[in-house]
Each structure stands twice: as C-alpha cells, then as structure tokens.
Specification:
InterPro entries: Calcineurin-like_PHP, CNP_phosphodiesterase-III, Metallo-depent_PP-like. By secondary structure, this protein is of the alpha/beta class. The chain has one domain: Metallo-dependent phosphatases (Purple Acid Phosphatase, chain A, domain 2, 4-Layer Sandwich), CATH 3.60.21.10. The chain contains five helices and eleven strands. The longest helix has 15 residues. The protein is globular, with a radius of gyration of 17 Å. 41% of the residues are buried. It binds fe (ii) ion. Fe (ii) ion binds next to loops.
Length: 263
C-alpha cells in the first residue's frame, strides 16, 4: 500500500491576506495536521497555486514552512505561480523537464506523474506540444505500470461558471492523449477550490478544496465580480493506493474560522 497526502492551492503569501484569509495560519494548520496524523505517508503532493502573487519572498517563506513537513513534498505549478522563481525555490526530482515543472516519481504501487499546466500570463492553463510529447513518452514507457496523474488545471468543464473559462486550453487534446493509455488509473486536479469527482472519458478524477479559501457551488451562478469565498472548511486528501485501486478521504484539517480575518 502506498499512502499519499494531497493538498492544493495554498496561495501562500509572506504578508497580508488573500480574500479575507491568512495563508500562513491555514498552511500552518495543514502542516501540523499532516505531521500529527499522517507522518506515515510517503509524500505530499501539492497541485499548484503554491503562492498567490509569485514573489521571491513568498516562495522563500513557503519553502521554509513546507520544509517542516515530515515527508518529502512534490510542488506543482498553477496559474498564480512564476515558473522561474518556482524552479529557483524548490528542489525538483532528476526526472523533471528542463523548461517545465513536470516530473515522475516511482512508488511500489505505480508511477506518480506531476504535470505543468501553467500558461505564462494567463489564468487559463495550457498543455503544449513539448509537454504532451513528454507525457506521451512517459505513458508509453510505463507499459502496464499503473500511472496516477496530478495537475492544476482541469482539461474539462466541471460546471463551475467562472473557473470553467479558466480551465486547460485545448483540454480535449489532453483528454484524447490520456484516454488512449490504460495505464492511467486516476487524475487528481487543483484549481477549482472545490471537491468534485467524476470521470474524464473512462478515467476517474477528483479535485480538492484549497488549503486557503473555497469556491462556492454554482448556485446562484457567480463570476469574479460577484465572487465571495464560501464559508466551508478546508481539507486535504489522504490517498491510499493498493494494486491500482485508489481510496481517497477528504480530511478537514482545521475549523473554517482558522485564519479567517474580519474587517
Ligand atoms: Fe487556486
């Protein structure tokens, strides 16, 4: 059995608040929870939007906090990230692409593949020819080894009015690529700040709440002009993989009130 911890969208800032939330307090609570209850996990995967503003100070502060995790962590890029500063801030596996934050990690239960869907200067994501070619080769080479994909931007619309305009551009090509490989067993995605599950073609997927602030369900329909974070508590995912089967628990790591600022 391989046990993984999954957190998403910490939107870390070294100072100030983000949409009425304190990113330091929320990340501290997540790390404390993980170290207290899940130190037996083999790694923590973080599906993007590592920082909110993409400054050197924010990455340095984030790295300092993440280094207190009792397990190795695997950071990924989201639309709020800066790829250059990201690469300067984190040590990435030897399997990482030269120009992107895309890499693999072998586990006894299969291959973890962390993807880079960041598009410079855009809130929408992309998966370009270079990244597609790398993933195609990785999946071919995997053969019958089970593969578990982690990425930031969903390649399909998930029924969220605003964020669905900021999904992966040309997501259908990505869907066509992964659905052609039976080794792909599960897709884990960030970006939407909500827990959603379903299938992409025949492949099961899950999304994750943000460590920081949550997106409301689409009722009533909202836009960034009307957006207000919902008063829902954050959570992490606790993933167990056994013989290609995936079990994922949504695990609330603190009360909603932790790190919520008034005024
Ligand atoms: Fe985010």
């Amino acid at each position: 059995m391989t046990k993984l911890i999954w957190m998403s969208d910490p939107h870390y800032t070294q100072e100030g608040r983000v949409l009425g939330h304190d990113p330091r307090a929320r990340l501290d609570a997540a790390i404390d929870h993980i170290n207290t209850h899940h130190s037996d996990a083999s790694m923590c995967l973080i599906t993007g939007d590592m920082v909110n503003r993409g400054t050197h100070e924010d990455y340095a502060g984030l790295r300092k906090k993440l280094d207190t995790l009792s397990m190795p962590y695997c950071p990924m890029a989201g639309n709020h990230d800066n790829r250059t500063l990201f690469k300067q801030s984190f040590e990435l596996p030897e399997t990482c692409m030269q120009d992107f934050i895309q890499y693999t990690i072998r586990t006894p239960q299969g291959l973890i593949v962390c993807l880079d869907t960041h598009k410079t200067g855009s809130d929408a994501g992309e998966f370009c020819q270079n990244r597609s070619a790398w993933l195609t080769k990785t999946l071919r080479d995997a053969g019958t080894t089970p593969v578990f994909l982690f990425l930031h931007h969903p390649p399909i619309a998930l029924g969220l009015p605003m964020q669905d305009t900021e999904n992966m551009e040309n997501g259908q090509a990505f869907v066509d690529l992964i659905s052609g490989f039976t080794c792909v067993k599960y897709v884990f995605m960030g970006h939407v700040h909500r827990p959603i599950t379903g299938t992409i073609d025949h492949i099961p997927f899950a999304t994750m709440r943000s460590v920081l602030y949550q997106a409301p369900p689409p009722r009533p329909e909202w836009t960034w002009k009307t957006f207000t974070p919902s008063a829902e508590a954050p959570c992490i995912g606790v993933i167990q993989i056994v013989n290609s089967s995936v079990i994922m628990q949504y695990d609330q790591f603190c009360p909603y009130e932790t790190g919520v600022l008034s005024g």
